[in-house]
């Protein structure tokens, strides 16, 4: 997610971070590059202007430039501005405080991911909120649309309104409401018809359905890959119906982030959910602070910590954090990490969330790492002597052959492991440079 934007900004801030002192001109130069990076990311021009102006004004202040860590402070200012642009510090929740059945109306253009998102949200409501949900497709234009929702409903275990051929959208909406009341449904999701373009007929239909069902939430689904177009679509919809939020789909493939960064400012509507894949659990509540952290290449520290908290013993984690900060990350630590990674859903899932892990992740991908590789790496470390584990530099060619034999692997596997350990060590040093894990946390006010 947002890889190209993240790389560009990372380059700018590496330069800032590397300097002990900053002059006003340094900040202005950096901000020029930030401006270009945002424009290349397809962020709307007025949003870019406001962003750069705000950040520059704060960052050239004497209290920043004269501080001990000017680079970090500038990055913090950028981080805060990103959070604000993405929608602010709060997480937009669905408004479920009403007498059931609460209606959520899903609107959007064809192919935006509307039907998929409807099923994803129904699944969330059922599993995370313990709500009894029901879905109904009002799409009478696309022949297979109602059938598609029914199939998705079966997959996520949420009821769909039985299909009656020939009914109009308003008739279906009325029937859905009655049915929801009868069956004591908490939340009714109405998947309205899509169109290829925004047109008046579509808008009229939406208004009619809205008048009948008085939705608590009207969520517009747009495809983040369409960049500024997504924002334009949102603007046209917002002018016609009272949107309560946006679902931004295909964020998994969005390297640029222009739609996410422009949406709030241009439409005034919060992004409530992010679609992150084709699978029906690939949806996230959109949290601006987390997304900002990802864009700045800091990794999704909060997600990582939360995930770790589910599986890792606190004492272990504290001991490890301490060793990382002291730069004493050895093979025993790596082994412990590997075990934890296994229990946390594998390497890919994890590396993407860790700060500074992009390179290590690339190295892992290049070596075709999978779960079996985790076990093999464990075997390799198991074949090292106690001394070698603490000091991997001891591993000369002869020792590597011994370790490879002992673990039933090849010397090149041993080398790969050593390389990975090195990359992780480097990542840890980077964290240390930023003031250690505590410094990092403080920087983001977490
Ligand atoms: P609709 O016409 O707006 O109802 O669109 P669909 O829900 O049928 O989705 C169109 C295609 O986009 C399907 O193949 C979905 O699997 C895919 N899709 C939907 N959301 C996402 C997402 O967040 N990420 C990815 N990668 N694919 C998605």
TrEMBL record:
GO cellular component term of the entry, any: plasma membrane
GO function terms (MF aspect): 7S RNA binding; GTP binding; GTPase activity
Matches recorded under SMART domains: AAA (SM00382), SRP54 (SM00962), SRP54_N (SM00963)
Subcellular location: Cell inner membrane; Cytoplasm
Annotated EC: 3.6.5.4
Keywords: Cytoplasm, GTP-binding, Hydrolase, Nucleotide-binding, Ribonucleoprotein, RNA-binding, Signal recognition particle
GO biological process, one term: SRP-dependent cotranslational protein targeting to membrane
Membrane topology annotation: Peripheral membrane protein
Entries under InterPro entries matching the protein: AAA+_ATPase (IPR003593), P-loop_NTPase (IPR027417), Signal_recog_part_SRP54_M_sf (IPR036891), Signal_recog_particl_SRP54_hlx (IPR013822), Signal_recog_particle_SRP54_M (IPR004125), SRP (IPR004780), SRP54 (IPR022941), SRP54_GTPase_dom (IPR000897)
Cited PANTHER family: SIGNAL RECOGNITION PARTICLE 54K PROTEIN SRP54 (PTHR11564), SIGNAL RECOGNITION PARTICLE SUBUNIT SRP54 (PTHR11564:SF5)
HAMAP family: SRP54
Family stated for the protein in its record: Belongs to the GTP-binding SRP family. SRP54 subfamily.
Domain notes: Composed of three domains: the N-terminal N domain, which is responsible for interactions with the ribosome, the central G domain, which binds GTP, and the C-terminal M domain, which binds the RNA and the signal sequence of the RNC.
Annotated function: Involved in targeting and insertion of nascent membrane proteins into the cytoplasmic membrane. Binds to the hydrophobic signal sequence of the ribosome-nascent chain (RNC) as it emerges from the ribosomes. The SRP-RNC complex is then targeted to the cytoplasmic membrane where it interacts with the SRP receptor FtsY. Interaction with FtsY leads to the transfer of the RNC complex to the Sec translocase for insertion into the membrane, the hydrolysis of GTP by both Ffh and FtsY, and the dissociation of the SRP-FtsY complex into the individual components.
Protein name according to UniProt: Signal recognition particle protein
Species name: Novosphingobium chloroacetimidivorans
